[in-house]
Amino acid sequence: MKAFTYVKKGKFEMREKPRPQLLEEQDAIVKVTLASICSSDLHIKHGAVPRAVPGVTVGHEMVGIVEEVGAAVTKVKPGDRVTVNVETFCGKCFFCKNGYVNNCTDPNGGWALGCRIDGGQAEYVRVPYANQGLNLIPDFVSDEQALFVGDILATGFWATKISEIKSEDAVLILGAGPTGICTLLCVMQKNPKKIIVCEKDENRIRFVKEHYPGVFTAVPEMVKEITAAAGDHGGADVVLEAAGTEASFRLAWECARPNAIVTVIALYDKPQILPLPDMYGKNLTFKTGGVDGCNCEEILNLIAQGRIDTTPLITHTFRFDEIEKAYELFEKKKDGVMKTAVRIHAV
């Protein structure tokens, strides 16, 4: 089968690989129908993910059809359309039982697919712990509607959940990229008093204004002033940082009111600094780290109810043999791209 592969720092290429086989009784083999490219894939390409294994098939945003299941898989069966979770988790360790599936103690726990084990930018993928890692797609939900459930939409849902957003809050989201938009969609489910999205890219600002007219927008140079005016107590009650730059990390705590919650969901290329002498008296609560992606079924229900729609994010669609073009477009942010969909198998 064809599989897009991490060769070495700076190089991905299409390779022929054997079709994956069931290795454990909790495995499933999924025929990938639609995949996408994530910024985390670019982090792997550029060497910013040390645990990524050269030779691994990349990709962790995908949907597909179950081909085979191990003897212990009870949740899905061959022929089912499914989303695939970005994370592998056993469901039984301390962290899984408490909902902290990103820290599953299994050797392949956490983000494994497309990083440490072969992922989904391929014709087929083996999904360990399929009872936890796969979710049924309702018949009237399309592949496009479900494509981001297992990764960036799960990230936005988790970030919103841990941010403790209340109806009277002013919420600031830094970054209107795909993860920022998915976060926005989930924040909107909480109906806070005000939502502000900060973004420097004109195309992305235009995207927010077009699709979410009730949301305030701000450029980085004005966001502190706008947020201070929007909040009732000198700043945002909740800040969600989805941009992943040194400047956005600083803005996250600068725009927060005293005693606010700052949730950092971005993945950075280098360490960030907490300037405690400057920020100490604000008494902020920071929440950081990888997504605990165990709410996919609830997210699919919201999609089925028409409450969340991420299809506007898919601005470009490619065939699998065009995936290098898709990467170039996405990485260089050409042609107003937000997200690309890569059609692996036609349905």
TrEMBL record:
Cofactor: Zn(2+)
Keyword rRNA processing: no
GO molecular function: oxidoreductase activity; zinc ion binding
Domain Alcohol dehydrogenase-like C-terminal: 180-287
Gene3D superfamilies registered for this protein in UniProt: Medium-chain alcohol dehydrogenases, catalytic domain (3.90.180.10), NAD(P)-binding Rossmann-like Domain (3.40.50.720)
Domain Alcohol dehydrogenase-like N-terminal: 25-131
Keyword Thylakoid on entry: no
Source domain of life: Bacteria
Any single Pfam family the record assigns to this protein: ADH_zinc_N
Keywords, sorted A to Z: Metal-binding, Oxidoreductase, Zinc
Recorded family membership: Belongs to the zinc-containing alcohol dehydrogenase family.
Protein name: Alcohol dehydrogenase catalytic domain-containing protein
Taxon lineage: Bacteria, Bacillati, Bacillota, Clostridia, Eubacteriales
